[in-house]
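Problem 12. The chain below contains 227 residues. Write out its predicted structure in token notation.
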Amino acid sequence: MSRRQSGKPLWTAVDQYLGDLFAAHDEHLEAALKANRKAGLPAIDVSPLQGKFLQFLIHVTQAKRVLEIGLLGGYSTMWMARALPRGGRIVSLEFSQRHADVASANLKRAGLLKKVDIRVGPALENLPLLAKERGGKFDLIFIDADKDNNPHYLEWAIKLARRGSIIVVDNVARHGQIIEAKNPAGDIQGTRRCLKLMASDPRLSAFAMQTVGLKGLDGFAAAVVIR
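Solution.
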């Protein structure tokens, strides 16, 4: 079997095929990606299938309170917001005001802004504030921000979760560099520490999986809080 199709790696073609079947785009999703590119946001949005996976998790768990660490242009947020049950809400943390403005416009255009509470500023400053609020624990937490701080985000995710909550950490394969123990890059070391914590913490039942597709060699880790 050929490893390439139409000049693209075979896994990219397979990802596109599966995405067209299970995660087809509509005008609002397409408009969000176009707006993100026009605004110069980095092209690091989740893939359509990854967005559908997050949506699937919300459907399965009936998560009403979702925490997203890393909003960017709101593309992944749109996928999740569409799956929220009645009264559900996403709290999304974003460092950049410019990114938050683009995301707000995308969510408003799609009629989803009322379901999302955007908090602008360093996540490690906003997370302690969330812990002091009376909104309750989060049912699903998606970590997709600066990878250097993944261990800290994970610790806060556990504090803000309840038994049975799901925690998902994106981009853990780091294009294969995750196996390089001596790689000094902050994103590599931060992700390695995060994975070790997920694997060893007795409060979690966790796994990690590498993926290939539109985003090349990628992967995610997920855990359920068991105590």
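Discussion. The two ends are 47 Å apart (CA to CA). Students who got a different answer should revisit the alignment rule from Section 12.3.
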